[in-house]
Design brief:
Layout lengths: L5 H24 L6 H14 L3 E2 H6 L6 E4 L2 E3 L14 E10 L2 E10 L8 H15 L8 H14 L3 E2 L4 E4 L6 E7 L15 E9 L5 E3 L6 E3 L5 E9 L6 E2 L9
Antiparallel strand pairs: 1-4, 2-4, 3-11, 4-5, 5-12, 6-9, 7-8, 7-9, 9-12, 10-11, 12-13
């Protein structure tokens, strides 16, 4: 979305604060023994309290208010009463919503309780790579160059990236152009980030896989070669300097 007025910026700031707060509170609420459906219902109540509507539910008919992925699930995990959170689980929560005609998106992976399965290095790498990538973005920077940075940093840490999941434009819809903010460089892609536009930047850092594949439920994505994936995501406003991170209050970097 191109921001052309103060009211549009305020609209994006408001919905971004809603999804960021929801993600933060859901992360704090999650605990061992809880089902992912209970956690999702909690998130749904928060969104409703702000008058916001779940973006995946409204846009795609997703069976949940938020996407909650456990362990080997890479993305789009369906909240379920049968999925019980266990000590040391790798969990990802992705929250996107609409308020007053504006849409925003954010997400984060974290470990529940003690890191008995040693997922924290993967989580930390994802967070750090997102931070580095976002702080290199400004108007005129090539999208492919940010993809190269993300993949290069992942390799330095001993990981891979999922090549068929991407960040995207966001604002008046959940997904807008540019829809190809990939985690690797596509040669020949000369598209550049545009000043005063809002985009969702997200990492997909993997231990073994390079592509996400869909399960038979029609939603859940897993790695094509197994392993684990960490994702972190912020909605930002691109400027000619450091971007304005609209979902900063989710505190995924804390």
């Amino acid at each position: 979305m191109s921001i052309t007025s103060a009211s549009e910026l305020i609209g994006m700031q408001e919905i971004s604060k809603v999804v960021a707060t929801t993600l933060k509170l859901m992360r704090e609420y999650a605990r061992v023994g809880m089902s992912t459906k209970e956690l999702d219902n909690y998130g749904g109540k928060i969104l409703k309290s702000y008058g916001a509507k779940s973006a995946p539910f409204e846009t795609y008919g997703f069976p949940g208010y938020t996407c909650i992925s456990l362990n080997n699930e890479a993305a789009h995990g369906i909240p379920s009463t049968r999925k019980i959170i266990q000590e040391g689980d790798l969990i990802n929560i992705d929250v996107s919503a609409e308020l007053n005609g504006f849409w925003s998106d954010n997400g984060g992976s974290f470990v529940i309780g003690k890191d008995i399965h040693h997922h924290q290095p993967l989580v930390d790498a994802s967070k750090q790579i997102l931070h580095k990538a976002i702080h290199q973005i400004k108007g005129g920077v090539k999208i492919a160059d940010i993809g190269y940075l993300i993949e290069s940093e992942a390799k330095k840490s001993g990981y891979r990236v999922l090549k068929n999941l991407a960040g995207h434009g966001v604002g008046r819809n959940l997904h807008e152009k540019p829809d190809n903010i990939l985690n690797y460089r596509v040669k020949g892609n000369n598209e550049r980030f545009q000043k005063n536009t809002t985009v969702a930047i997200e990492t997909f850092i993997a231990t073994q896989s390079s592509f996400a594949v869909e399960l038979h439920d029609g939603w859940t994505l897993v790695g094509n070669k197994g392993g684990y994936v960490a994702q972190h995501e912020h909605t930002i406003l691109i400027t000619d300097q450091t971007p304005l991170i609209l979902t900063q209050s989710n505190e995924i970097w804390n």
